[in-house]
């Protein structure tokens, strides 16, 4: 005859065995690693490499301009709560060190562009400056993702194999993207490979794909362009006799309207340079950004 104490003991034993069964242990996923990325393109790369093991906060979000970004108290809190901070480097985030100091962040930092050979660009004051837009060349981004994988593995050694595998898989996607982009431009003669943009941000892209990008000195996304700057761009369009004219997604509506009137050209669809589009837009990821830009640039150059 089974006694009541025996029945109670067996019930407790069954409950404990269920609680500590392999299935239950597997259901308890590790807490994601908190990572902060300085802007949306890096945020996308960190999510790809980190996968389910990371939770990513992006300081400068999709459609926002890192050139005019002003850190907020919430950004300092996000950094302090992170195990890893990922920045571009090359002078792209002049506010980053100030934010790190004011937040008292003591964690690790990955400079995604580490090891990449920088190019120079014409500065606003007539002096050459380091061009920070290295991500515009997909080959450089292969280095970005390897640096990100190494940084994640350092703070989360248990996930190192996952991070390296994710990075390797994404590098293969980038290699395919690079080949696809080259094919996009393959039938365009050298004499037509000329594009005018409002902001000198395509140097890495142009050098890699043999496209000449022209941008008037001093025109950037930092502020509304002056009448003199607009005049420079109009004269440049007329002198170069190119119809491939493009602006960033954060370009000035005033500049677009005046160019259409004074230079007799209609600018092509917006290009994405320093930020992704909002989710569901044409550049919701880094791969989409390069594909969108390549498609629009190829169509514009064929009109030259």
- Give the CA-based shape: globular
Helix fraction, binned, reads: 40-55%
The mean pLDDT is 87
**Can you identify the CATH superfamily of the largest domain?**
Nitrogenase molybdenum iron protein domain
Round the Cα radius of gyration to an integer and report it: 25 Å
- Quote the distance from N terminus to C terminus: 96 Å
CATH topology of the largest domain: Rossmann fold
Order of helices and strands: HHEHEHEHEEEHHEHEHEHH
- Tell me the number of helical segments per DSSP (H or I, 4 or more residues long): 11
Tell me, what is the CATH class of the largest domain? Alpha Beta
Give the number of DSSP strands. 9
By CATH, the architecture of the largest domain is named: 3-Layer(aba) Sandwich
Strand order of the largest sheet: 2-1-3-4
**Helix-strand makeup class:** alpha/beta
Content of β-strand: 5-15%
Number of domains: 2
Largest beta-sheet characterization: 4 strands, parallel
Uncertain runs are: 4-26
3D architecture notes:
By secondary structure, this protein is an alpha/beta fold. It folds into two domains: 33-181, 3-Layer(aba) Sandwich (Rossmann fold); 184-301, Rossmann fold, CATH 3.40.50.1980. 46% of the residues lie in helices and 12% in strands. The strands form three sheets. Strands 2-1-3-4 form a four-stranded parallel beta sheet, sandwiched between helices. Strands 8-7-9 form a three-stranded parallel beta sheet. The chain starts with a helix and ends with a helix.
